[in-house]
């Protein structure tokens, strides 16, 4: 995301608007993955599943579909099972799933292809309506869905129906998630009530498990950087000399996020070269915490450094949150916050 000016602004005063057409135009890989390829994916030799996933996905990206010899999500496949129209990359955070997803996008010979986070697709349905979204994507060669999650019944019905309508038209699917498909929605809503929909959707995918450790934690120290007031002022002043930076009180900023749809968070940080958050405190409200997680995902996609005072950003989520149904989302955010405060 280009930085267009220098100086200081406040995210809590921004109210970005995004049209349906702009949302569609944004369905491409994040800038940091503009040139992601299978060749630039560095598989960890300690985890053979990473190289195995890379090999399988190169076959899938040739346009021939996904190998199905290992079976589907819910039953063992027959030796001669037909190839699946989709791949589902299941693994922990920081093992390179998004890099591989972007590599699929760039490698697949396709006229019409789209790449977006799960929340971007569901937001598009909200903006355009379900039927217009189906018409938009009908006939597309490839849909890449990053951070696939079913957080509520509405999302479940939207995505299962959308996938069911697109696959018969020849659309290939590629998705990433920190959660295996049979655990989607677990601990968040009555997922068992939607088991038929989830199972029907899963039949379109070949699961590919990717093991490994978080590369972000390997690259930096294990905790988010916390600055005192003087160091914060110095860092933000230096950054503002050559880039537009944001400077916000953390609580005011979190309150403002509630008034902005998560699909617009990417516009909230448009043109920003560094994010400043003063007086960080821990979360008491899970809805507010999850909005912050969605914001962190967009800041990480844009690779915008964060500078902060107060509580360390990797400590803002309560223990009961980290132990609950959104555990993996919170841990992914912690990993990304550590990286962004070190960048």
TrEMBL record:
InterPro entries per the UniProt record, alphabetical: ATPase_AFG1-like, P-loop_NTPase
BP GO annotations: cell division
Transmembrane recorded as keyword: no
Residue runs in coiled coils: none
Keyword terms, alphabetized: ATP-binding, Cell cycle, Cell division, Nucleotide-binding
NCBIfam families: ZapE
Protein name: Cell division protein ZapE
Organism name: Microbacterium aquilitoris
Gene name for this UniProt entry: zapE
């Amino acid at each position: 995301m280009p930085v267009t000016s220098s100086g200081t602004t406040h995210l809590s005063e921004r109210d970005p608007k995004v049209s349906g057409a702009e949302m569609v135009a944004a369905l491409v890989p994040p800038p940091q993955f503009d040139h992601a390829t299978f060749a630039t994916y560095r598989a960890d030799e300690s985890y053979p599943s990473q190289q195995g996933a890379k090999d399988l996905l190169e076959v899938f990206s040739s346009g021939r579909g996904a190998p199905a010899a290992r079976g589907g999500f819910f039953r063992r496949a027959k030796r001669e099972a037909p190839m699946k129209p989709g791949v589902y990359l299941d693994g922990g955070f920081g093992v390179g799933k998004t890099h591989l997803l972007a590599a699929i996008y760039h490698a697949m010979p396709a006229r019409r292809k789209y790449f977006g986070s799960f929340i971007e697709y569901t937001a598009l349905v909200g903006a355009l309506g379900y039927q217009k979204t189906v018409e938009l994507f009908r006939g597309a060669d490839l849909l890449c869905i990053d951070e696939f999650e079913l957080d509520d019944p509405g999302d479940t019905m939207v995505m299962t129906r959308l996938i069911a309508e697109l696959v018969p038209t020849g659309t290939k699917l590629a998705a990433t998630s920190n959660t295996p498909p049979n655990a989607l929605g677990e601990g968040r809503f009555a997922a068992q009530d939607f088991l038929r929909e989830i199972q029907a959707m899963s039949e379109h995918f070949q699961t590919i498990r990717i093991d490994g450790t978080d590369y972000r934690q390997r690259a930096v120290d294990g905790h988010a950087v916390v600055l005192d007031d003087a160091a914060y002022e110095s860092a933000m002043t230096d950054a503002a000399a050559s880039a537009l930076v944001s400077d916000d009180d953390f609580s005011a900023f979190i309150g403002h996020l509630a008034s902005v749809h998560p699909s617009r968070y990417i516009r909230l940080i448009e043109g920003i070269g560094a994010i400043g958050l003063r007086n960080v405190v821990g979360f008491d409200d899970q809805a507010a915490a999850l909005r912050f997680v969605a914001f962190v995902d967009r800041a990480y996609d844009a690779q915008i450094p964060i500078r902060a005072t107060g509580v360390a950003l990797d400590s803002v989520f309560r223990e009961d949150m980290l132990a609950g149904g959104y555990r993996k989302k919170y841990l992914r955010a912690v990993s990304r916050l550590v990286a962004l405060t070190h960048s």
